[in-house]
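Hi there, hope your week has been kind to you so far. For a while now I've been wondering how a particular protein folds. I'm sending you its amino acid sequence along with the backbone structure tokens. Could you read through the record and tell me how the tokens relate to the sequence? Take your time with it, there's no hurry, and the full record follows here.
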Amino acid sequence: MAAHPGVVVGPLDLAARVDEALVVQALAFGLSDEEIDIRRYIVLRHLKNAGARALGATTEDDRLVGFVYGMPNDRTHWWSTVVEPYLRGNGSDTWLDDSFVITELHVHPAFQGRGVGRELITTITDTAGQPRSILSAIDTESPARALYRRLGYHDLARRVMFPSAPSPYAVMGAWLPLARL
């Protein structure tokens, strides 16, 4: 499936466009104003990590309708410290080493289901210097989880609880390059 007509995926200065990106995330993921303020701080902090990169999906008039960012995983980062016990419990904790983590991937609801998310994630992982990729997603059968599975991601751990998150997450991993649909 080709990406949505009129949408271009390319490099994104996420620090400069963080507020636009958080509007997309709020619409796609359902965030409150307070959560958006917290996410702004987190995104800007993440972008300071070595190897952090972002891509955006923009319309012809430069409207941001999707974004992805990630970085080489580091076991000392907060996310890794939360998921590591779950992965260690089933012998999958080596996935935390030499992996590119997809930190966030969100597409505006009006552009979902049209290949934008697929193009974002495959494009960013195609240039990762690591042999595999990991991510976390809400542990429900959703269109996002179905996309990740089609791309080659599989469950490494389920029922992962993040502090203050009301729902459990699944940690998923895939060897790179990702499968093409």
The longest strand covers residues 64-72.
